Known about the structure:
Layout: E1 4-8, H1 13-29, E2 32-40, H2 41-44, H3 54-86, E3 93-98, H4 100-109, E4 113-117, H5 130-140, E5 145-148, E6 157-161, H6 166-178, E7 185-192, H7 195-211, E8 215-222, H8 227-238, E9 240-245, H9 253-258, H10 263-267, E10 272-275
Parallel strand pairs: 1-2, 1-4, 2-3, 4-5, 6-7, 6-9, 7-8, 9-10
Antiparallel strand pairs: 5-10
Amino acid sequence: MLKRALVLLGETPSSEAARRYGFRLAKQTGAELAGLAGVDLTSIEAPMLGGIGTSAYKARLEERFTRQAVDARQRLHDAFELECRGHQLPFEWLSFEGDPAATLLLATETRDLVITGHDTAFCGTANMRLSEVIARLLLITPRPVIVCPDELPGGSDILIAYDGSFPAMRAVQMFVLLGIGYGKRICVTSIDASQELAARRAAAAAGYLRSHGYEADANPISSRTHPAEVINIEIADRRIESLVMGAYGHRGFREALFGSTTGFLMESPQCVVFLYH
């Protein structure tokens, strides 16, 4: 069962949605919720190519981004403390300045779940490719990650995208053990050119969920369309709140999640996405 969760704090719409989702989950499960904010100096101080005058310009940029990140961290501290009081939850705050990787690793060592917006970052207005942020987070933490869209969906149903791979099996098992889907309708979708194979996979995952007390239906789909496109159609048609998935597809983990075709699953998610590798 979910006991302790960590929400990454930011000021983007998806970061605010992640906070709302975190508080909702804490109320639903009774779990503790801690907030993490900081200043990512590794992104702010990244090397910059250029000629004469570049060093001075880079130094000014770094100073500006650092100041913005420090100011944002203080605003987030104050806002999160106020929200915790409003939800009658203990205020637990983690902060860092430097490389977020070490902080995240230590923070997740004693927590069950990480919640983040799809564009949460710790570097002021400095830009970082979204796929890099989430891929790095997934690689450095042994815990599942929930990625939130700009606005939380109005529905409550859950879609599990299941391809029978080890990452998909692990994602389903972790989702089940955390207990965050109890009382909600769950649809298990398996997509394959072979209807027989899709049906077998969907039935197996749905049966596993039902054995743990979840309400789950199998929805095999025979299609040669890329799974990402089919998944997005299912999310829209079924008014899905949460998507559960591992490394979906026949390619490597990173490419399956962030390749040119499936990138929009993370960059513009239509619902909350539960990821585990």
